[in-house]
Amino acid sequence: MIDLWFLVIAFLWTGYFVLEGFDFGVGMLAPFVGGDDDEQRQSLQTIGPVWDGNEVWLITAVGAMFAAFPAWYAGLLSSFYLPVVLVLAGLIVRGVGLEWRGKVANPAWCDLGIVAGSALPAFLWGAVFADLLLDGVLPALLGGTFTLALSLLHGAVFLALRTEGRVRRRARVAALATGAVVLPLAVVALSTLASVSGAATVPALAAMAVLAAAVALIWRRREGWAFTATAAAIALTSVAVFVRLKEAPLPGLTLTEAASAPYTLTVLTWIGLITLPFVLAYQAWTYWVFRKRVALPR
Q1: What's the distance, CA 128 to chain centroid?
Q2: Phi, psi torsion values for 250, nearest 5 degrees
Q3: pTM here?
Q4: Phi, psi of 163 (to 5 degrees)
């Protein structure tokens, strides 16, 4: 049961990073790929139906940690109290900006909130997990910069995949430019991760996925495959992190020591078997319904 719930939590965090990754990227890029207000709304409409559902993955991941591994939950949140509070503040500000943007006369403050509220979590999650693995300011800065840049690339590819016209063209340019930054960062960050991970092959595959997205697929205008590659890069990076955390989720703490009682894990398993398929099916249906490209508002 302990290994099963660790895999569930790793899956939930990975899903959150992949799905919120393009949310963060779109939020940061929308003012820059949109030449006017209509084009900016076109960009934000690509995440409008899904961004709040994507945040549910974070709530579920943290809730599962609290229930299945309370010592891990308590230690992680207390050790990184300030970054976690800043992440929550960023998510709140971003949510307010997205909801209010179309309801105020001057949306400039909403735009600033969306950009800042997207950039802050994208950077801080990478910094938190890098510091958890490597324990230092420089690794944290490297991890945060890498996840921020990778989110920008992921969001740019998503915009190129989901929009039409000038926004799509600008998104492709942004993806190419961001890819040039992400590639060297990926080499350094993922090499560092490979040095402490028990599965060095996984970071190498993540770096190859970044290369595929930034060079081959985007250049050939294959946005669908490019998005698959950036999603794979994020997922593989997350897998490498959790492979390392399985040995010790916190310094001096094993999974067995962090876990709840067997009865609690059994009850959680039955609850998860009943509810999780419905949640996944509903979110898959949402993405299917809103799968078409977004055109300029009329």
Answers
A1: 13
A2: -140, 155
A3: 0.93
A4: -120, 175
pLDDT in tens, the chain (298 residues): 888 999 999 999 999 999 999 999 999 999 998 878 888 889 999 998 888 889 989 999 999 999 999 999 999 988 899 999 999 999 999 999 998 887 887 888 899 999 999 999 999 999 999 999 888 889 899 999 999 999 999 999 999 999 988 999 999 989 988 988 888 888 888 888 877 765 667 888 888 888 888 776 666 778 888 899 999 999 999 998 998 898 888 888 888 888 888 888 889 899 888 888 888 888 889 888 888 888 876 6
| CA dist list (Å): 163 to 20, 223, 238 | 18, 11, 28
- The radius of gyration of the chain from alpha carbons, rounded to an integer in Å, stands at 19
Query: In whole angstroms, what is the distance from residue 68 CA to residue 262 CA?
Result: 9
Give one word for 135, left, alpha or beta, with left for phi > 0 and alpha for psi -120 to 50. left
Query: Six-digit token pair at 10?
Result: 């790793």
Strand, coil or helix: what is 74? helix
Q: How far apart are CA 244 and CA 242, in angstroms?
A: 5
| Nearest residue to 125 via CA among 169, 167, 91 | 91
Which ranges constitute the DSSP H helices of the chain?
A: 2-33, 37-45, 51-68, 70-79, 81-100, 108-134, 137-162, 165-196, 201-211, 218-219, 223-247, 255-258, 262-289
Cα 10 to Cα 261: distance, rounded to the nearest angstrom: 20
Nearest C-alpha neighbor of 54 from the set 93, 105, 95, 102: 95
282-286 contacts: CB < 8 A, separation 24 or more?
283/50, 283/53, 286/49, 286/50, 286/53
